[in-house]
Each structure stands twice: as structure tokens, then as C-alpha cells.
Inverse folding.
């Protein structure tokens, strides 16, 4: 199935109040598009990151009470899962789509990754500040960023990864947001290119591992 683009109806899925109704709509309406994006984006990540990036579409298997506020396809170096490794994520929610790089709470090599970040932060901060529209998010599920990276100092950017080792549930989430109006204006090919451009801007972080 080729990716045919998102519609206004896709975003309205996240306004369905009950978990059975929202999950049925996610599975029937949104997941097929995420699988199509996995097929289009996944192979194009290899030259960007230098290795194969395996796609993982969220299943929300642990959800029994509260319906998910977003859903996603993640791309990581492990075939069996993505949460214990660095990964990219394309997430859709009520008001936007986000192209993200994440180091999550379950990442297996937090201390090692933070040390690499600290060694390279001079170079990385310059690159991140130049990436058009790159943002920092406090949480992977937040629709709104905490800061635009070009507007904060290199020193402040350097401190962002400290959350990974200061807190058990610490995470680092950087990326770019497209609101619904922007997404609906983009043709499918342009949308895929926007995702790949963001992942390219964040590839140096992915390769730190």
C-alpha cells in the first residue's frame, strides 16, 4: 500500500472519547498509513544513519482504560523492538504530527550515550541550533515543544541530556512539529521528504550510540 497522505478525519480520531472506539479507528484508519510510511521511510534511513533502521508501528497493547493521545511508527536499530535503543519516531495526535529523535527511559546505554553527548556537544549544539524549526520536548507525547533550539544557548542544549541519568524516567526528545494545516497542505511525497529531512538533521544524535 502506498502512502496517500493524512486527512482531517485522521486527526479527528483522537477526539473519540472511549478507548474501544478510538483504538478501532487507530487500527482501521491510521495504522495502515503508518505501515505504508514504514515501507517508504525505512529503506531511505539507511544512507542517513549508516545502518538499517527497522520500523515498529505502535500497538498500544497495555492500554485498557485511557485511550492513547497519539500513535506512531518508530525506527530503530533493533529488529525486535525500539524502546531500549535510540530511535526516530513519526507521531500523529489531535493537532499535529511530530518527527522526533528519542532516547527513552528504557534505553539500555544511557550513561554511555550521555558521555558521548558531552564529548561532542560543541559540534552538536551548533548543528542543532542551525536545524530549521528543531525543538526540544519535555515528554515524547507532548504536542507543544518546551523550546525552539535556535532560541536557546549552546550551554542550555548541552544540559538537556542530563535528564537521562538524573531521573529513572528521564528522556531526551528533539524534533520538528507540523500542525494539521501544514500536514493537509503537503502532498504525500513532500510529507515523506519532510520526515526524512528532519531525521537527517538529527542523524548525528542517532549515530552517537
Amino acid at each position: 500500500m502506498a502512502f496517500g497522505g493524512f486527512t482531517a478525519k485522521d486527526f479527528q480520531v483522537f477526539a473519540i472519547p472511549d478507548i474501544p472506539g478510538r483504538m478501532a479507528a487507530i487500527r482501521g484508519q491510521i495504522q495502515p498509513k503508518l505501515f505504508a510510511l514504514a515501507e517508504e521511510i525505512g529503506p531511505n534511513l539507511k544512507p542517513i544513519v549508516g545502518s538499517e533502521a527497522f520500523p515498529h508501528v505502535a500497538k498500544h497493547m497495555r492500554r485498557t482504560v485511557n485511550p492513547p493521545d497519539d500513535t506512531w511508527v518508530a525506527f530503530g536499530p533493533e529488529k525486535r523492538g525500539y524502546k531500549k535503543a535510540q530511535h526516530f519516531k513519526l507521531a500523529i495526535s489531535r493537532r499535529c504530527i511530530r518527527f522526533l529523535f528519542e532516547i527513552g527511559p528504557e534505553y539500555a546505554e544511557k550513561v554511555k550515550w550521555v558521555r558521548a553527548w558531552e564529548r561532542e556537544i560543541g559540534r552538536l549544539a551548533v548543528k542543532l541550533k542551525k536545524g530549521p524549526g528543531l525543538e526540544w520536548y519535555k515528554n515524547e507525547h507532548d504536542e507543544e515543544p518546551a523550546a525552539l533550539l535556535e532560541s536557546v544557548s549552546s550551554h542550555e542544549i548541552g544540559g538537556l541530556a542530563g535528564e537521562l541519568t538524573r531521573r529513572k524516567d528521564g528522556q531526551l526528545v528533539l524534533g520538528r512539529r507540523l500542525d494539521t494545516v501544514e500536514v493537509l497542505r503537503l502532498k504525500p511525497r513532500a510529507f515523506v521528504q519532510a520526515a526524512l529531512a528532519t531525521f537527517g538533521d538529527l542523524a548525528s544524535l542517532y549515530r552517537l550510540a
Remarks:
- The longest strand covers residues 96-103.
- The beta strands are 54-57, 70-76, 87-93, 96-103, 135-137, 147-148, 172-179.
- The chain has eight helices and seven strands.
